[in-house]
Amino acid sequence: QQPVQSPQAVILREGEDAVINCSSSKALYSVHWYRQKHGEAPVFLMILLKGGEQKGHDKISASFNEKKQQSSLYLTASQLSYSGTYFCGTLEVEAAGNKLTFGGGTRVLVKP
Amino acid sequence: SAVISQKPSRDICQRGTSLTIQCQVDSQVTMMFWYRQQPGQSLTLIATANQGSEATYESGFVIDKFPISRPNLTFSTLTVSNMSPEDSSIYLCSPLVGQGPDTQYFGPGTRLTVL
């Protein structure tokens, strides 16, 4: 079942912060975050395993609340390069074959 | 990470024809995923291909339409058969690599337009 991402889109000024949420109705083993720029393939950002750990990639960090089956991606002091569509991919505990299910995506536009 | 290449990067095809997309990885991977991304949409899994076994297809995708080959651990092909305009999409291969938690990386994609 496809995880739900919110918001669908966000517009930021350079230096502002934003949070992208990814929620699932299924028990999750891991959450994977990707960013895709227009005309390019998705680029892997980070993976979070169940255990509630928080990770960081430059000024982009994420958390995973396994009790709520929810992950949040934090864009801190956003830069123009952060623009793109962010996708979460979830691996369900009962999923066969390591298959990720992707959310609908969150479009992020960072303006000067 | 892994270095992944896909050929062709883009193509324009006529209705009723077939196109084979190649995916090459610079390291051996056991599991290869093929995705489709329609314009403005998310990523939809077509099938999972393990070396030495038949590919496993997701609901809505069949082998006759999307045959997959996996001759070795670094290479795979996806064929889009008897194409129609509805097949116009970006097709991406995604090998499962990593040490510890397995990570999926995406190939650069093949942008297919069917006229």
Structure in words:
The complex is a heterodimer of chains A (112) and B (115). Helix content of chain A is 0%, strand content 56%. Chain A has no helices and 11 strands. In chain A, β6 (54-57) and β7 (60-65) form a beta hairpin. Chain A is globular and about 45 Å long. Chain A starts with a strand and ends with a strand. By secondary structure, chain B is mainly beta. Helices cover 0% and strands 50% of the residues of chain B. Chain B contains no helices and 11 strands. Chain B has strands spanning 4-7, 10-13, 19-25, 31-37, 44-50, 56-57, 68-72, 75-80, 89-97, 103-104, 110-114. In chain B, strands 2, 4, 5, 6, 9, 10 and 11 form a 7-stranded mixed β-sheet that branches. Chain B has a 4-stranded antiparallel β-sheet with strand order 1-3-8-7, with no helix packed on it. In chain B, a hairpin with a 5-residue loop joins β9 and β10. Chain B is globular. Chain B starts with a strand and ends with a strand. The chains are: A mainly beta (112), B mainly beta (115). The A-B interface holds A 2, 30, 32, 34, 40-44, 47, 49, 87, 89, 97-105 and B 1, 31, 33, 41-45, 48, 56, 92, 96, 101-109.
Write a concise keyword list for the protein shown above.
heterodimer, A: 112 residues, mainly beta, 5-stranded antiparallel sheet, 11 strands, B: mainly beta, 7-stranded mixed sheet, 50% strand, globular
